[in-house]
Design goal:
- The complex is a heterodimer.
- By secondary structure, chain A is of the alpha+beta class.
- Chain A contains ten helices and 18 strands.
- By secondary structure, chain B is mainly α.
- In chain B, about 80% of the residues lie in helices and about 0% in strands.
- In chain B, α5 packs parallel to α10 and α14 runs antiparallel to α15.
- The longest helix of chain B has about 35 residues.
- The chains are: A alpha+beta, B mainly alpha.
Chain lengths: ~375, ~290
């Protein structure tokens, strides 16, 4: 039980974030520099979970933590906000150490997954809550809140209670509420997950605009690769509590390094050793590529580049030709995606007509080929 | 039997909504006698005494009786002390409920059990315990008397204390339950906006659990109003000072039964008013 800081009202010095130095690119003292280590012993079903991720970002950056459920993304976010204590590591924001700063004194704003707008307060008072807690007078806080709602295009809904707001409006109120405290770090937990598909598109575009305008660091957590790629400048992929890959969205989409990412970006991915144009896979056959490499590599190719035949194609070169068995079929947009097992497990996309002509059904045996020019090899 | 026959006869021509109809008749037909008879008996058992109270009420002399100073004194004392006891329960009980619901400390389960003990403890035992603690020679009362000259037993304050002792657990249980059901992440959200834990409680949690606090207060108030055993043991039965309505009823029953009925009617009316006030909360399930 920690009651020491519970009853202490935030003093002005704590409440106002230290004035940020002018944002400079690649400055060592501005932005976010964190190594978040959180041990959770025996919580939920996976016992002994350990999160250990390093995050750095310059002011103005939007970083997305992308990963499957249970990877530790939300734990990382909570650690940044101070809601979950760090077991180890450090957390510096604009040069100031925050590891031991209680959450109410951190210059951090959070947009929660289901927004958590206070149901008993109007949109205006929800937004005014932060400034009020950080020492602003009631009128001042409300003026600031009104300005934020105006900026979010919600001036007409200032008096509305959260339950009267649509999902998209509630999301913007939550964003305004988080920004109204002028945070130096904005955290968004699955910002679009609570929205239906139609509003999602619209809200995603708006959110992108607001994040672009935000001058400090934004970190968002999502399991949706599209959200991550649209909203973020840089992706940090987290699996099992570790960073497995980070880079720009384009880089990650082209060069996935784990099966999870490959699945997200829709690529067949294999790991092997290259010698010249041939990559011998760790398990399975060889793949011929156009790149000339040596040593451990990844090979990736899109499912759409796979051609299927019922009988072994004659005449075609024997390179990148594998005998497979259809393990499953599903519609994928206007295409059929075939999951193939056999020499080389892979996914292949084909048109409905082609699937019918080939008489594909689970258990059918097929020949799959990929042109070397359609593959892409890169060092592991 | 007509209500039973009607839906059965209607099944012939219209079969578009068979399920509802079957459920309707089945529901009525399916009540087994071993449940129906005791159920009706229980209903009668609970309602009959109240009916008797109304039937035997001295309606003609009622206005005169209810305006007598004695009744007024008792009623006034009852209302004031029950309200004061509820206020005490609120001021101390809500924080206790918060501690039980939101913090972890060793022996919390035991504390919770002990706190709710007065719920099941015979009130007379509570009164005796209060005397031993706060009486003039009590464990604490001794010092209160010696140092501050405060004596609690057999005073109106004693009435309030006895009532609060019995009523507070009702409030604590009710508020704790509401707190547990309330999403603690709202408090986290408030914290990230710069609210201290107390500010978060005051400005976010408390408004969210207000219905539970209100219901708990009403329960506690009703319990305090009807409190008899602990009050008579700890505070005695002095008209105008410690004689609350239930004590007055009991006393009146021995020498003036009609007065007892009149006083009981007043308490019944108050109880019905309380029930009506809670209707939205507890009776909407049907």
């Amino acid at each position: 039980m920690t009651t020491d800081d519970d009853t202490t009202p935030p003093t002005p010095s704590q409440a106002e974030p230290t004035p940020a130095p002018p944002p400079t690119d690649a400055g060592t003292t501005t932005g976010l520099d964190a190594r978040l280590v959180v041990d959770r012993t025996g919580s939920r079903d996976h016992t002994g979970f350990r999160l250990d991720v390093t995050l750095t970002a310059a002011p103005g950056d939007v970083v997305a933590l992308l990963g499957p459920n249970g990877a530790g993304k939300t734990t990382a976010l909570r650690a940044l906000a101070g809601l979950t204590p760090l077991t180890d590591g450090h957390l510096r924001l604009d040069g100031a150490s925050l590891e031991h700063t209680p959450p109410e004194s951190r210059p951090v704003g959070v947009v929660f997954q289901d927004y958590l707008l206070f149901p008993h307060l109007s949109a205006l008072d929800n937004v005014a809550f932060g400034p009020r807690c950080r020492g602003a007078s009631k009128t001042e806080a409300r003026t600031r809140a009104a300005a934020w709602l105006e900026r979010m295009g919600l001036a007409d809904h200032a008096a509305s209670k959260p339950r009267r707001l649509s999902g998209g409006q509630a999301q913007r109120v939550a964003l305004a509420r988080a920004l109204a405290t002028r945070p130096r770090l904005l955290l968004l937990d699955e910002p679009l997950a609570a929205l239906d598909a139609r509003t999602r598109l619209e809200v995603r575009a708006q959110l992108r605009r607001h994040l672009a305008e935000f001058e400090a660091v934004s970190v968002l957590v999502t399991h949706d690769p599209l959200d991550a790629m649209v909203l973020a400048d840089r992706l940090v992929v987290v699996e099992h509590g570790r960073v497995v890959q980070e880079g720009t969205p384009a880089d990650i989409a082209r060069h996935p390094r784990t099966d999870y990412i490959a699945r997200l970006v829709g690529l067949n991915l294999y790991r092997g050793r290259a010698a010249g144009h041939t990559v011998r896979l760790d398990a399975g056959p060889a793949i011929t590529t156009t790149e000339e490499l040596s040593g451990p590599v990844f090979v990736a190719f899109p499912p759409s580049s796979v051609t299927l035949f019922r009988d072994r194609p004659s005449g075609a070169s024997a390179r990148n030709l594998w005998r497979c068995e259809v393990a499953g079929l599903e519609t994928h947009g206007d295409q059929i995606r075939a999951d193939l097992a056999g020499e080389l497990p892979l996914a292949a996309d084909l048109t409905t007509v082609a699937a019918a002509e080939l008489d594909l059904h689970p258990g059918a045996s097929v020949w799959a080929t990929v042109k070397a020019t359609q593959t892409h090899a890169y060092p592991a | 039997m007509t209500p039973l026959d009607k839906p059965g006869a209607a099944t012939g021509p219209r079969t578009d909504r068979p399920r509802r109809r079957r459920a309707g008749t089945g529901g009525r037909r399916g009540v087994p006698l071993p449940l129906l008879l005791p159920g009706l008996l229980a209903m009668a058992f609970l309602l009959l005494p109240l009916l008797a109270l109304l039937i035997r009420a001295p309606w003609r002399s009622l206005p005169g009786r209810l305006t007598s100073t004695e009744v007024w004194q008792a009623l006034q004392l009852s209302l004031i002390s029950a309200t004061a006891a509820t206020a005490v329960s609120l001021v101390l009980g809500v924080p206790l409920a918060w501690l039980l619901a939101r913090t972890e400390f060793p022996g919390r389960g035991l504390v919770r059990a002990l706190v709710t003990l007065p719920l099941v403890l015979p009130p007379v035992v509570g009164g005796v315990a209060l005397l031993l603690a706060l009486g003039r020679n009590g464990v604490v009362g001794k010092w209160l008397d010696a140092w501050f000259g405060i004596t609690l037993p057999f005073t109106t304050t004693g009435v309030v204390i006895a009532e609060a002792f019995v009523a507070m657990p009702f409030l604590v249980i009710s508020v704790e339950g509401t707190l547990r059901a309330a999403d603690p992440r709202y408090e986290e959200a408030a914290t990230t906006l710069g609210a201290s834990r107390f500010t978060a409680f005051r400005r976010v949690t408390l408004p969210l659990i207000a219905p539970g606090v209100a219901a708990g207060s009403v329960l506690a108030w009703a319990r305090a109003l009807g409190e008899f055993g602990a009050t008579i043991t700890f505070a005695g039965n002095f008209p105008g000072r410690t004689q609350t309505m239930p004590l007055a009823v009991y006393l009146a029953l021995q020498n003036d039964p009609e007065a007892a009925i009149a006083l009981s009617l007043v308490l019944l009316a108050v109880s019905i008013a309380v029930l009506a006030g809670l209707r939205d909360r507890w009776m909407t399930t049907s």
